[in-house]
């Protein structure tokens, strides 16, 4: 019984880390994870005892769930502590100047000169 609850917990942990989709249109990855756990559940219920290979697969799935969670946390922390990492260089320079109390001068552009003439 403990093995089946571990499998359910692992399955839920993996689904938590995958991008959310409605149940009516699951992704192929959702379908594959579901089928893998469903196949494992039917095999373990038929034999009454979980095989060593099934335990190894559950352990791998647990490791994948932990890895996916760590990756999500890493991306969140990078966004939090490096807010300009996703900006282009011009915007990053402008925001850095504003951080120290300066405004960058307006740069002359060819298109503006033609419009004003």
TrEMBL record:
Endpoints of the signal sequence: none
GO CC term, one of those recorded: mitochondrial matrix
UniProt cross-references to Pfam families, sorted A to Z: Complex1_LYR_2
Classification via InterPro entries: Fmc1 (IPR039196)
One of the GO BP terms on file: mitochondrial proton-transporting ATP synthase complex assembly
Bias (Basic and acidic residues): 32-41
Region (Disordered): 17-55
PANTHER family assigned to the protein according to its UniProt record, in alphabetical order: ATP SYNTHASE ASSEMBLY FACTOR FMC1, MITOCHONDRIAL (PTHR28015:SF1)
Name listed for the protein in its UniProt record: Ras guanyl-nucleotide exchange factor RasGEF
Organismal lineage: Eukaryota, Fungi, Dikarya, Ascomycota, Pezizomycotina
């Amino acid at each position: 019984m403990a093995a089946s609850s571990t499998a359910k917990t692992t399955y839920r942990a993996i689904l938590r880390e995958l991008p959310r989709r409605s149940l009516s249109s699951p992704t192929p990855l959702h379908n594959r994870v579901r089928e893998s756990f469903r196949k494992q559940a039917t095999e373990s219920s038929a034999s009454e005892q979980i095989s060593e290979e099934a335990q190894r697969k559950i352990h791998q799935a647990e490791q994948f769930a932990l890895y996916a969670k760590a990756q999500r946390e890493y991306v969140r922390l990078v966004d939090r502590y490096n807010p300009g990492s996703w900006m282009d260089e011009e915007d990053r320079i402008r925001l850095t100047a504003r951080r120290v109390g300066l405004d960058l001068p307006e740069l002359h552009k060819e298109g503006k000169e033609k419009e004003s003439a």
